[in-house]
Amino acid sequence: MAQVMLRFIFISDADRPTVALKVPDEMLFQEALVMAAKKQGKDSSVVTATFPGGSPIEGGTVKEVADKSPNIHVIDPSVVG
Questions:
Q1: End-to-end alpha-carbon separation of the chain, Å?
Q2: Average pLDDT, the chain
Q3: Which is nearest to 33 in space by CA: 67, 57, 16, 64?
Q4: 56, 68, 72, 79: which is closest to 21 by C-alpha?
């Protein structure tokens, strides 16, 4: 099974921490987002993910998302305010 490296950049945090995950390409993107949020100590039910240009990520598999961009911006509204 092929794997994909995704970089989750928590842009709402001042120091913009990054979580890199190597996950199976057929994994649902939402599952990878939950894993990244947990590694960063965030509540995965409140964070949202976008592509670097700000386009929302509608879901799908990790491969479908990574084909557009392996860099994911994660926004935590509780940090932004």
A1: 40
A2: 93
A3: 57
A4: 72
Instruction: Return the residue matching tokens 């990790």.
Output: 62
By the 10 Å C-beta count (0-12 exposed, 13-18 middle, 19+ buried), 34 is classed as: middle
Segment 51-65, tens digit of pLDDT: 999 999 988 999 999
In degrees rounded to 5, what are phi and psi of residue 22? -105, 110
pTM: 0.91
Q: Which string of DSSP letters, residue by residue, matches 13-75?
A: STT--EEEEEEETTSBHHHHHHHHHHHTT--TTT-EEE-TTSPBP---BHHHHHHH-SEEEEE
